[in-house]
Amino acid sequence: MEVWYLMIPIAMVFVAIAIAVFFWSVKSDQFEDLDRHGSNILFDDDDTAHRQAQGNQPQDQQTPPHANQQKDPHDHSA
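Above: the chain's sequence. Below: its structure in token form.
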């Protein structure tokens, strides 16, 4: 029965850590864009169209979508 005197404070510490981590994640906007990370696994990072869609290239360096004539073997959008 004496084990409860040890287990209850340890459980309370774990709950406090979990609550602190949750509030940190909310404060640092971890839950702002839930859809982007789920769709990131569908694209290659070095794909030009993906970088353009994410807005990672400056406007003057973007190529038109029809300039890339090579078909991506992983593109299943058809």
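Residues 55 and 78 are 23 Å apart (CA to CA).
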